[in-house]
Write a structure and sequence with these properties.
single chain, about 725 residues, mainly beta, 6-stranded antiparallel β-sheet, 8 helices
């Protein structure tokens, strides 16, 4: 602490030599800065400095730099020596005569200092162009090039008054060097800079660290740490294609990559492009160098070395190997048609509009949605000449979406767009059941019913009448995707009862029979009206329910309850809403406050796949009185189950009839059928025949001589579930 106090006192006195006093009562001039580095060589000490902006650089050139050395070896009696009272850049003629015409960095510094027009030319060093960011501003241009020239050439640094070599030193002594710009203006003053150094041999310069290499298609990308122990100003990049025997330096001048992505003209200020953000983060912490590779799949070695502010090069880093690889996918195929040829077979035809020289073959995948997920139909790659494939296990009542995946010899893939195929459907869905509802004092009808289980269900239509034997009229203008409906009836009419019935519609526009009518009574209630369920959105496992707020006077908030699973009792008429107390199967999952400035509130929840959920809500007024619970909103996110493959497939040869007999065992609830796959001489398995759920055996009377592989899987009709394929069983027919 005592040593630090003495240094601060000395600096305070030295700084006063060239400082301008601040005017009393004003904020004073703006303070600029000079950064200084020192390096000891035992017989000499080199001092390097650099103004931190163009204005400070101009002031230093104009008024000169005062260089002061303080011999601090004897702490009690420091000795101060002025090494240079006003060091300025050399005149142009003296600079060129002193350095010589072969120093390209001195020529750049001379042009920056004394040239009338300073602009980029073909003769300007390549590395400088990478460094300069402010090309539109001449002063910044000159300043940037001058600082680079001083870093790369000791002679240039000395000629432009940014370097001093002190040879009047003693080995092992302690010194403090102070740089001061001897001049100021009413607007600017440059603060002094100081550095402490012991005159011993400097530590060796460490090689750059953190070098990494990444290979792409005929390209390589190098990363290494931007912050280095050697404080490097720029780098050389070397490459070897013979295992390190010979090296080629790739850059013509010392290289330094920018530390952020340049602003694109016309880009939105403050825009958050995730790719740009990632590149910015990379360039902030790493140097980045791109190189073109002559060949893919040939290992190249790369190494880097750095140059510091004293124009000294570090040792080369340890080399890293980079190998380019083919990343260009084949041209994507195009599906031309998917047609139902017979039964559960869909014939897929595709074309390859543009040829790919390295095309290897195709895989076929299938899903029940245009967005997937898609599951492979082909275990083995189809030959590249193939253009037709038949899916013999297409699923009825739901769309079968197909994707053709082209693969090249480097394992790059390109997929076609998803193309739908449908089996002919003439079977209507079953009539909805457990239709129930209620009418509140405002005439709002809340109707709900149990969800149908048909996989191709499209929606529901709701009809009403004022008598059980009257003609029912449709009240819905569009198909309902949910199992609830909100309607309004007049409370002034003489009818005290209203009948509602529901019809289910599938994707083929088949209509079910009418449900059993539900009779609803008009009621007059004192509690506030319950909120209404509006839009229900299911995105993957996230459900959002819109609740239309009650307009009853005194409405203060809402409670939301949720039930998971189907009702246990078949005569419940749908999931029961909670009573005044805590419901048995419902659970409170949220509360929301009334907002009179909005029409509705949104409630979000996370659900599991293939599970029925029911949501209901009620209104709480300011006195604590609660409304009836709203009609439950049914929500389910359906996803295709993936089941284990059937076991026990047996294959034997009937020598008498020269047939192949197959048998298997599988029992489960629900509606399903079996699909048997066959392959010849270890070729690709393709769907051969389908069997009803009652079947446990089959016969192949088409097999000739040779080797055959058989496998089986199960497809469910009453739910979206398909098993994986069993392990193939091989048989050889003589």
């Amino acid at each position: 602490m005592k040593k630090l106090s003495i240094i601060l006192c000395l600096l305070t006195g030295l700084g006063a030599w060239c400082q301008v006093k601040k005017t009393a009562g004003t904020t004073g001039p703006k303070h600029l800065h000079v950064r200084m580095l020192t390096k000891a060589y035992a017989d000499s000490i080199v001092v390097r400095w650099a103004p931190m902006d163009p204005v400070a650089w101009l002031m230093g050139n104009d008024s000169g730099y005062r260089i002061v050395r303080i011999d601090y070896t004897d702490r009690g009696h420091p000795v101060t020596t002025v090494l240079s009272p006003r060091l300025r850049p050399l005149p142009l003629e003296q600079m060129m005569a002193t350095i010589g015409p072969n120093d390209k960095y001195a020529a750049v510094a001379a042009q920056a200092l004394y040239g009338k027009d300073f602009q980029m030319t073909k003769e300007a060093p390549y590395g400088f162009a990478k460094k300069v960011k402010q090309a539109h501003e001449a002063l910044s241009f000159r300043y940037s090039f001058t600082m680079q020239a001083a870093d790369f050439s000791p002679a240039a640094a000395s000629a432009i008054a940014l370097r001093w070599v002190d040879r009047d030193v003693k080995k092992g002594s302690d010194y403090i060097y102070v740089i001061t710009v001897c001049g100021a203006t009413k607007d600017y003053v440059v603060d002094s800079s100081a550095a402490f150094v012991v005159d011993n041999n400097a530590n060796p310069i460490p090689p750059p660290d953190g070098l990494q290499g990444f290979g792409f298609d005929r390209k390589s990308e190098l990363h290494w740490n931007r912050r280095q122990r050697g404080n490097f100003s720029a780098y050389d990049i070397g490459r070897s294609d013979d295992g390190g025997k010979t090296w080629l330096v790739l850059n013509k001048a010392p290289y330094l990559s920018p530390d952020k992505v340049p602003q694109i003209p016309g880009a939105v200020k403050g825009g958050k492009d995730t790719t740009i953000v990632k590149i910015d983060a990379l360039m902030r912490d790493h140097q980045v160098f791109m190189d073109s590779l002559p060949r893919d799949y040939l290992p190249y070695l790369y190494r880097v070395r750095g140059i510091d502010a004293f124009a000294e090069w570090s040792p080369w880093s340890a080399p890293v190997a980079v190998e380019g690889r083919d990343l260009t996918p084949p041209v994507a195929p195009v599906i031309d048609s998917v047609r139902n040829t017979t039964g559960s077979q869909l014939r897929i035809v595709w074309s390859q509009r543009a040829s790919s020289p390295d095309l290897a073959g195709y895989y076929i995948s299938k899903g029940n949605s245009v967005k997937g997920p898609f599951y492979p139909l082909t275990k083995y790659m189809l030959p590249k000449e193939t253009r037709v494939f038949t899916d013999s296990a297409a699923v009825a009542h739901v769309p079968n979406y197909y994707v053709i995946v082209a693969v090249d010899t480097a394992k790059n893939v390109a997929a076609s767009g998803a193309f739908p195929g449908y089996l002919t459907d003439t079977v209507p869905p079953s009539a909805p059941v457990r239709v129930a509802g209620s009418i509140d004092s405002m005439g709002v009808v809340r109707l709900h019913w149990a969800a149908n289980h048909e996989p191709d269900l499209k929606g529901y239509k709701v009809y009403f009448a004022y008598g059980a034997r009257d003609q029912f009229a449709q009240v819905t203008h569009v198909l309902l995707a949910d199992t609830s409906f909100v309607d309004t009836v007049s409370m002034r009419s003489l009818n005290r009862r209203v009948w509602y019935t529901v019809v289910a519609v599938d994707n083929s526009n088949n209509h079910s029979a009418y449900s059993a009518p539900a009779m609803l009574k008009k009621l007059v209630v004192v509690p506030p009206s319950a909120p209404l369920a509006g839009t229900v959105t299911v995105a993957a496992r996230r459900v959002t329910v819109e609740w239309i707020e009650s307009r009853s006077e005194g409405a203060a908030g809402y409670e939301i309850a949720r039930m998971r699973g189907q009702p246990k009792t078949p005569d419940a008429g749908g999931p029961k809403t909670p009573d005044a107390g805590q419901p048995a199967r419902y659970a409170l999952v949220g509360k929301m406050a009334q907002d009179w400035n909005r029409r509705s509130l949104s409630f979000g929840d996370t659900i599991s796949v293939n599970t029925d959920y029911y949501y209901t809500a009620r209104t709480i007024d300011s006195t604590g009185v609660r409304s009836e619970w709203s009609s439950p909103v049914h929500v389910v996110y359906r996803a295709t189950d993936s089941l284990a493959a059937p076991a026990g497939l047996q294959v034997r040869l009937d020598d008498q009839h020269h047939h192949v007999r197959l048998s298997w065992q599988y029992k489960d609830k629900g509606e399903y059928f079996f699909v048997v796959y066959r392959g010849f001489n270890h070729g690709a398995l393709s769907a051969w025949h389908s069997f009803d759920k009652e079947a446990s055996s089959g016969e192949d009377d088409e097999a000739g001589s040779g080797g055959y592989d058989y496998a089986i899987k199960v497809v469910y009709r009453d739910r979206p579930a398909i098993s994986t394929m069993s392990k193939p069983v091989h048989i050889t027919i003589p």
